[in-house]
Amino acid sequence: MKKKSCRNRKRVLIKIYLVLISLFIVSLMFVYKAIDTNATNYENKAVFTKNDTKHSNNNSNLIVCIDPGHGGYDNGTKSSSGILEKDITLNVALEVGKILEENGIKVIYTRTSDSVQWPSNEKLDLRERVKISNDAKADIFVSIHCNGDKNASYKGVETWCRFPNSQGENLAKNIQKELTNANYTTDRGLKYESNRSLAVLKLNNSVSALVELGFLSNSSDAKFITSKVGQAQCSEALAKAILNYALTFEK
């Protein structure tokens, strides 16, 4: 009886050891998966860090001019809740500039607050924005806007450049792609000078594009682009687009 009892105890102990070993292996698998996930997340965010040598090594001499549309006397369009285009564009522009600077790019702005340094004249306004870019010898110019229309069903993001098969179109394609990938609205595609001439593009010496983030007159678009989360996502998408384009840019 004692021998049988000892055998039973041994069997129980073996089972316990096997269970403990299995639990240990499973625990190791969870730890490895967590480490691997964190590493992947870090790699995905690397485009927005100072240590992203992939971008910064190529962009040390690059100058980007960011133009927050409207400002000062000019409110731009507004949402049904009264949020102004000029405030949204400024928030997004400053965040885009911050990300670009973290990646080694020199950034200038046409404005960094709600005040503007030119008189209340639309024609002079546009020329002054271009002058800031041209005087700084900017390589890339991006003007940020929000759309509006009497028809509240209109929605979507669109990016403007001057001509097809140009560097401006390449920049615009990158911008349109990244904002569309954010998946917050519809893709209205690229627009060209043949659709409408825009002074900030036509008079600019740099590779230029103008983006309309969405329609403030549309409830769905407005909800996103007036929110902090929405503006942050738009900023990251724009910065990523400029950085991606910059990899192909040669002075």
From TrEMBL:
The chain crosses the membrane at residues 12-32. InterPro entries: MurNAc-LAA_cat (IPR002508), N-acetylmuramoyl_amidase_3 (IPR050695). The keyword Transmembrane helix applies. Residues 130-243 form the MurNAc-LAA domain. SMART domains: Ami_3. The keyword Flavoprotein does not apply. Pfam families: Amidase_3 (PF01520). Keywords: Hydrolase, Membrane, Transmembrane, Transmembrane helix. This is N-acetylmuramoyl-L-alanine amidase. The lineage of its organism: Bacteria, Bacillati, Bacillota, Clostridia, Eubacteriales.
